[in-house]
Write a structure and sequence with these properties.
With 260 residues, the protein is of the alpha+beta class. It is 52% helix and 11% strand. Among the domains are: 53 residues, no CATH class; 71 residues, no CATH class. The strands form 3 sheets. It has a 4-stranded antiparallel sheet with strand order 2-1-5-6. The chain has a two-stranded antiparallel sheet with strand order 3-4. A two-stranded antiparallel sheet has the order 7-8.
């Protein structure tokens, strides 16, 4: 088996970066500590900001350095669990890092945020029912939330709409987990995998006000025809539908619903 020193030159040759990472993974699973350290560092330098950037600088209860550390721990712990024969093992490793960040955020938000009833004054853990915070004592929905480490400052007022950052952070966990599980089934060296990244990570979609024509934008990036982009989009949609069918997930409008 080649050592890590022998394969490092491949990083900038014919082999794609993903193949380079895959080679590092093979060596890491064989016990090569240098390869393990290099693999983690490569993922940190090349993938981490893009994958967890949206979670950084978002919440005073979680330091960015802690989130970065959680990501790297998730990556490190998953190296020996990755199956080299199923799907994309590098995506699986990255997914484990992202999922650990989400779990950390969720735990801290739930643990360090309370709700206060403005009618009866009762303070408790967050109690969200059908998208609305409800007082556990009197049933009032006149609720405000506050961070437990700063009782003198109301952290977030409950607007009872989609702008509630705490609720969004919690409610989106299921959808994000499904998306990341689907990501792990894609080969990022294919057009379908690359289109997924453009849609989900770079938000090159019809919902982006900065993109006039997302199909044309992608075609220009790929230096190809808009027809090919449309065909790739259809292929990606079919892959997503099959993934949902295989995993007991229904798509209702813009939402995923786990039915089993």
């Amino acid at each position: 088996m080649k050592g890590v020193g022998q394969i490092m030159d491949n990083e900038n040759t014919k082999e794609s970066r993903r193949e380079y990472l895959h080679n590092l993974l093979v060596l890491a699973q064989a016990g090569d500590q240098v390869a393990t350290d290099n693999l983690i560092n490569q993922i940190k330098q090349q993938e981490m900001r893009r994958r967890i950037g949206k979670y950084l600088h978002k919440n005073r209860q979680a330091e960015d350095e802690d989130l970065i550390q959680e990501f790297l721990i998730g990556v490190a712990l998953s190296i020996n669990k990755a199956d080299l024969e199923v799907g994309d093992p590098i995506e699986y490793i990255i997914y484990c890092g992202v999922n650990r960040v989400r779990s950390y955020l969720r735990q801290h938000i739930m643990k360090n945020t309370t709700q206060v009833c403005m009618d009866c004054g009762y303070e408790s853990r967050l109690n969200r029912v059908n998208g609305v915070y409800v007082c556990k004592k009197c049933g009032s929905v006149h609720i405000e939330t506050r961070e437990t480490h700063d009782h003198d400052e109301i952290a977030i007022q409950n607007k009872q709409d989609d702008r509630d950052d705490i609720a969004d952070m919690i409610d989106k966990q299921g959808a994000d987990d499904i998306i990341e599980r689907f990501r792990a089934t894609l080969d990022m060296n294919t057009r379908a995998g690359q289109l997924f990244v453009l849609f989900y990570d770079e938000e090159i979609t019809s919902d982006n006000p900065d993109v006039v024509n997302y199909i044309k934008e992608i075609a220009d990036r790929w230096k190809t025809s808009q027809v090919l982009v449309l065909q790739t989009r259809e292929k990606l949609q079919k892959k997503l539908l099959k993934f949902c069918q295989d995993n007991g997930i229904e798509i209702m409008g813009n939402h995923f619903i786990q039915i089993k």
